[in-house]
Amino acid sequence: MHSVRFDADEKLIGLVEGKLQKLEQFHDRIISSEVFMRLEHDSVERENKVVEIKLNLPGKDLFAKKNSRSFEDAADQTIEALRKQLIKYKEKVQDH
User: Fold this and answer.
1) Which carries the bigger pLDDT value, residue 79 or residue 5?
2) Could you tell me which of 36, 34, 39 has the C-alpha nearest to residue 52?
3) Distance CA 66, CA 77 (A)
4) Which span out of 3-17, 39-53, 65-79, 82-96 was modeled with the highest average pLDDT?
5) Residue 22 CB: number of other CB atoms within 10 A?
6) Apex CA 53: angle with CA 47 and CA 54, to 5°?
7) Cα–Cα distance measured from residue 52 to residue 54, given in angstroms and rounded to the nearest whole number
8) Is-contact 23 55, C-beta < 8 A?
9) In terms of CATH architecture, what is 2-95?
10) What does R_g of the chain's alpha carbons equal in angstroms?
11) What is the pLDDT of residues 5-15, one digit of tens each?
């Protein structure tokens, strides 16, 4: 878990870790994950909280990146995108 240009508090880290663990119900062979939370400075200061997550699976990496007004919302959106990717990947693997 990496936080860039700010210090993530324990509550935020715990929230993201908890949501990531729930992804294991969609694919039980997740090797590791790497999370980047970053503040991007824009002129309007609206959706400048960015969350990027990379999941390492056997033979495949999945990646999602979302930005929002809050890190919690960006994390929710990113993890939902990864959940969809995991379901598609698992279906693809099972078909072969």
Assistant:
1) 79
2) 36
3) 6
4) 65-79
5) 10
6) 150
7) 7
8) yes
9) 2-Layer Sandwich (3.30)
10) 14
11) 888 899 999 99
User: Domain boundaries in the chain?
Assistant: 2-95
Say what the pTM is.
0.90
**pLDDT 10s digits, 14-59:** 999 999 999 999 888 899 999 999 988 766 667 789 999 999 999 8
* Tokens read off for 86: 């995991």
Interatomic CA distance for residues 37 and 35, integer angstroms = 7
Any idea which residue has 């694919």 for tokens? 27
The CA–CA distances, whole Å, from 56 to 63, 68, 70, 92 equal 9, 24, 25, 17
Report residue 83 as tokens: 């959940």
